[in-house]
Amino acid sequence: MRALATIDRSALAHNLERVHELAPGREVYAAIKADGYGHGAATVARALHDADGFAVSSLDEAMQLRWSGITQPIMTLSQPLDAAACALAAEHDIRPVIFDRTHLAVLADYVGPELSVWIKLDSGMHRLGFAADEAAEIESQLQTLRHVSRVGWLTHLGCADDPASAMTKRQLAAFEAGTTGVDGQRSIANSAGVLAWPAAHADVVRPGIMLYGSSPMTDATAADYDLRPAMHLTAPIISRRRVAAGEPIGYGATWCAPEDMEVGVVGIGYGDGYPRHAPSGTPVLVRGERAALVGRVSMDMITVDLRAVPEAVVGERVTLWGPGLAADEVAEAAGTIAYELFCRLTGRVSVEIV
Ligand SMILES: Cc1ncc(COP(=O)(O)O)c(C=O)c1O
């Protein structure tokens, strides 16, 4: 087997428990869009059976969960609403998030089983949502619709990863002001909101990345919050060779051996989703020891400096991220975020659930 992602259900459950500890008494809608941030949405949903609900991107993602037997309420965060979507969503207790005036027009024409909707307010991120001060007007429009009920109101935080963010304070104030006097649950917090902004906990929290064991915060690691990695990505050493001092390794000859040294060739590359931009020096774990990627990432393989672990042999597996090597650290070396590392893994990576 080449690249293998081992998904640890107990780590997922532990991380959900951490959400409950950090936001006691709040409902938890686990964000499992993009196939559970690349971990497998149904696998994650089953491991998180204590979650009160789930948040996905689209009706398609929600229906896949229903077909997998997931029964909790599901909100769809970012799909344009049309008549067909309304009927299917209502039939399967899927709750669309409405965020645009075109949605109000669709809902006005909707006739069918009662459809529950969340309403998204733009509190300052300026991506999706009605202006926060339009909440009362939206509420009165929805009150006239016989086939539509409101679950509640949500907003999304743009800078909650910065624990001192003035924008987050402004967003919280705008949402509070906009939703004063309207009925329904309130939901603000993503993972960063759960971890660093108790004032954002409201009625329902919507954590994603922390459930997978990564930290969204700029100032604290996942370990600082006692989060456990839910994915262990490994790949085998497929060859090892001695490279003479001064000789280059890989495409573009971007790295040359500083001395005669052992190099391991590992069977994972950008064709599996390992980031092509990971530079020489990006950490990997060999036998639990830190080793460094050297040379360019190829489609099917990477090369690793084995000087720290000369005893490593062909066939043994190295860790690209997981226990002992946070995906956040690899992401930082590669100039990206753990979200992207997880989501970009390709179908070529085998999956094992433990
Ligand atoms: C609307 C909304 N809520 C919650 C989340 C979960 O965010 P995070 O993974 O940072 O916890 C996301 C993710 O992008 C989102 O778009």
From TrEMBL:
Cofactors demanded by this protein: pyridoxal 5'-phosphate
N6-(pyridoxal phosphate)lysine: residues carrying this PTM: K33
Keywords: Isomerase, Pyridoxal phosphate
rRNA-binding among keywords: no
GO MF annotation terms: alanine racemase activity; pyridoxal phosphate binding
Cellular component terms (Gene Ontology): cytosol
Any Pfam family matching the protein: Ala_racemase_C
Catalytic reactions of this protein: L-alanine = D-alanine
Entry similarity comment: Belongs to the alanine racemase family.
Function: Catalyzes the interconversion of L-alanine and D-alanine. May also act on other amino acids.
Protein name: Alanine racemase
Organism, scientific name: Salinisphaera hydrothermalis (strain C41B8)
